[in-house]
Amino acid sequence: MKLKILIASQIFFFAVFGGWLYINRADFVSEFWLETAPVDPRDILSGTYVALRYAQEDNVSECAKKLDKYVYRIWVHFSESEKKFRLTDGRSGNYYEVKDCSLNPVYEKNWAMIKLYPSSREVKAVFPERYYLNEKDPKKDIRASEAAVKVRIQRDKTLTITELAELAKDEQDKNSGQQQESGSDKV
User: Fold this and answer.
1) 97 vs 78: CA distance, rounded Å
2) pLDDT digit string (tens) for 19-52?
3) CA-based, 20 to 30 A from 177: which of 24, 26, 140, 156?
């Protein structure tokens, strides 16, 4: 009898826990795509991942400088930009870019909290930088400048990477052409 009660209570617990996970699976504020910039190390100890930089990191740093305060985090507003992308699987859309920032928490749509890392000469924005992959995933060979990243703003206003996707070949060629014209490593 005690064994039946124990088994029933475990089944009840896992059913409730599974239901809670199912209900909260889409517990986020908004989701959008960000443009990446080139960088591609590999780490044997951490596993296979794509290291990412974002074209918007400098915009966040500039916005932080305008606030003229020494802080470790700011709230940043992302909105749809004019720059378009097309992925190898046929999906397309517009990237999002930084439009505004604030020292005070803003709990509206598309506002995210970004941590800042003060270095010797400037303040750098800290975005999610690693996307881990299965060893056999063909995406592991994508260079960051050939990818777009789908991010999600969680309830706590932090950014989380939800998807890494390869840009269509013509998009990659446009990005590399822009990079050569500007003479910088930004895409």
Assistant:
1) 5
2) 877 776 655 567 788 887 755 555 556 667 777 8
3) 140
The residue behind tokens 């690693």 is 130
Backbone dihedral angles phi then psi of residue 59, each to the nearest 5 degrees: -65, -40
pTM above 0.85, yes or no: no
Q: Backbone phi, then psi, for 23, in 5-degree steps? A: -65, -40
Q: Token pair of 12, please? A: 């009840």
101-131: per-residue pLDDT in tens?
898 888 888 999 998 887 766 777 888 887 8
Gap between the Cα atoms of 142 and 184, Å rounded: 20
Q: Report yes or no: 77 and 155 within 8 Å, Cβ to Cβ.
A: no
Dump the DSSP string for the chain: -HHHHHHHHHHHHHHHHHHHHHHTTT-EEEEEEEEEE-----BTTTBSEEE-EETTHHHHHHHHHHHT---SEEEEEEEEEEEEEEBTTS-EEEEEEEEEEESS---STTEEEEEEEE-SS-EEEE---EEE--TT-GGGG--GGGEEEEEEEETTS-EEEEEEEEBPHHHHHHHHHHHHHHTSS--
Whole-angstrom Cα distance, residue 1 to residue 20? Answer: 29
